TrEMBL record:
Gene3D superfamilies xrefs: Cupredoxins - blue copper proteins
Protein name: Halocyanin domain-containing protein
Lineage: Archaea, Methanobacteriati, Methanobacteriota, Stenosarchaea group, Halobacteria
Coiled coil regions in record: none
Entry keyword Transcription: no
Record Pfam families: Copper-bind
Listed Gly residues bias regions: 41-52, 180-210
Amino acid sequence: MDRRKFVKFTGVAAAAGVTGCLGGGGDDGGDGNETDDGGDNGDGGNGGGGDTTAGQDGNYSDMTGQGEVEVDVGAGPSGYKFDPADVRVDPGTTVRWVWTGRGSQHNVVQSDGTETVSDPMFESELVATEGNEFTYTFEESGTYDYVCSVHLAQDMVGSVEVVEGEGGGDGGNETDTDTGNGGMNGDMNGTDGGNGGGNESDGGSGNESM
C-alpha cells in the first residue's frame, strides 16, 4: 500500500475512535438520569412513612379542674357499659356513679384491670334501681381500674386516672430561662474583662521596652 494512503487511512480510523468514545459518554449521562429518578422514588417512600398514626393515650375523658364528676352505670344499647368509661381527674375529686336502671343489676368494684381485687379500696352493692348513686373520692395520684363484677364477660369496665396539676412545671421552665440568660451575661462580661487585661499587659510591655 502507498505510504500516503496508509497515513490517510490511519487518521480516519483514529477520528472514528474518538467519535465512539464521545458516544459512550452520552450513554453514561443517560444512566445518571435513571439514578435521579430512583432518588425521586425514594422521596415518595419517605412521604408514605410520614402517614403513620401515632399511638393513642388511652382515650380518657379529661375532667380535671372539677371537684366532682358523674359516670353512668348501665349505659350503652344493652346497658352493660360505664359512660364515660375512662376519666382523668385531679387529686381530691369525687366520682359519682349513677345507675340508669338498664342491664339488670350492676356494681362498681376496684379491679386489677382484668378481675376484682381481694381487698378493694372502693366497692358498691349490686343494684338495679334507676337513680341509685355511689361515690368515692380519689385523694392520691394513680390509675384505678374498676368493673361490674357480674358483667365482666360483657366488658363492663372503667378506669379513673388521677393526675397532679402541671402548674409547677411551667415555673421550672421560667427559672431555667433566667439562669441561662445570667450565664450568658457572665460569659460576655468575663470575655470583656479578659480583653481589657490583655490591653493593659501590652501597655506595660511597651513601657519596659522604651
